[in-house]
Write a structure and sequence with these properties.
alpha/beta, 11 helices, D-Maltodextrin-Binding Protein, domain 2
């Protein structure tokens, strides 16, 4: 997401089961990082959504090495034969993107799964490790990790130290009850007269408060509510105390999947760029600057896009709304004034 605040908003969405699973797996290593248990696939396949505890539809994809792309890798990485992927999901994880799975040991989620897909195109064995948000960047800086896949937003500030290969839109989303007829089409004036909940200290709160101020100048109201937890917010939504909940879109997608089929089922009422009106925010694979990895990773992503595996990965995690048409190396990022 655009800032670490947005990531904290995702962290608030943890279920008790995910927290317990993380602790039971012993992933909160003293050094702030840990090796991650992973499952293996047969040659030429990658299974996404495995042990996802309902966050995804398990899907097996055929993915083989593309020699023309793997030839772009730095020689040292080719010789080593592994892609060292770090995910900044300690201590608790942030479903559906990165967390400990239903077996209480495997690091799963959309982000590590996508790292495994990219590694397959590059002809490399994925070597996953889990770290705190801060230590993820330390690992990239030190060379302990080649690349971070952890919902990292491309920003101009981060470009001073890192190269990016974009692979997903950075979106915030509105969650409403399934029976609601309200939808957001990108115009803040749609929110006039509504009561909307948002998490404190998040990027989406910043966006919502800006819209509230604009409506107030027009003599219109937008009531903004804050609740102490995701559970409390969802109870307010099902109880009719709020009309909608604005949150990080992956968290919205996760809760929609969890509530499907229940009397209180919810749906998406629309998304909006996490970078605001002037720029489409982008989530990107993050490598050390000038490491020579961003270009082959971007080419691997584009291969997955062109061959359909990318769309199937997003669909498995209910994140199709965040698809990009093409991976770019160091595209325009969140400006320095809002990094």
């Amino acid at each position: 997401m655009p800032t670490q605040f947005s990531r904290r908003g995702l962290l608030r969405g943890l279920t008790a089961l995910t927290v317990a699973a993380s602790l039971a797996a012993g992933l909160t290593a003293c050094g702030g990082d840990s090796d991650a248990a992973v499952t293996t696939d047969s040659a030429g396949t990658v299974t996404v959504g495995r042990v996802s505890n309902g966050a995804a539809r398990e899907t097996t994809l055929k993915v083989s090495e593309v020699k023309s792309i793997s030839a772009e890798l730095p020689a040292s990485v080719r010789r080593r034969g592994t892609l060292k992927i770090v995910v900044g999901a300690l201590p608790d994880g942030f479903p559906p993107l990165a967390y400990v799975g239903g077996d209480q040991k495997t690091l799963t989620g959309a982000e590590p799964d996508f790292g495994r897909l990219v590694a397959a195109v590059l002809g490399l064995e994925p070597e996953l490790s889990n770290a705190t948000w801060e230590n993820m960047f330390v690992g990239i800086d030190s060379g302990r990790a080649d690349v971070g896949f952890a919902n990292i937003t491309d920003t101009e500030e981060r470009k001073k130290k890192y190269d990016f290969a974009s692979y997903r839109k950075d979106e915030v989303g509105f969650e409403v009850l399934k029976k609601s007829t309200w939808n957001f089409d990108g115009d803040y004036r749609d929110l006039a007269g509504l009561t909307v909940a948002v998490d404190n200290g998040t990027n989406q709160e910043k966006i919502l408060l800006e819209w509230q101020a604009k409506l107030r100048k027009q003599g219109k109201t937008l009531t903004v509510k804050h609740y102490p937890s995701k559970n409390a917010t969802h109870l307010a939504l099902t109880g009719g105390k709020i009309d909608a909940y604005l949150a990080a879109n992956p968290g919205v997608a996760y809760h929609i999947a969890q509530s499907a089929g229940s009397p209180n089922a919810t749906r998406s009422a629309g998304t909006y760029s996490g970078a605001g009106a002037s720029l489409q925010g982008l989530i990107a694979a993050t490598t050390k600057k000038d490491s020579g990895l961003a270009e082959p990773i971007a080419d691997a992503v584009n291969h997955l896009i062109e061959n359909g595996q990318y769309a199937k990965w997003l669909a498995a995690y209910h994140l199709s709304a965040e698809a990009v048409a093409k991976s770019q190396v160091n595209p325009p990022g969140l400006p320095l004034t809002n990094s």
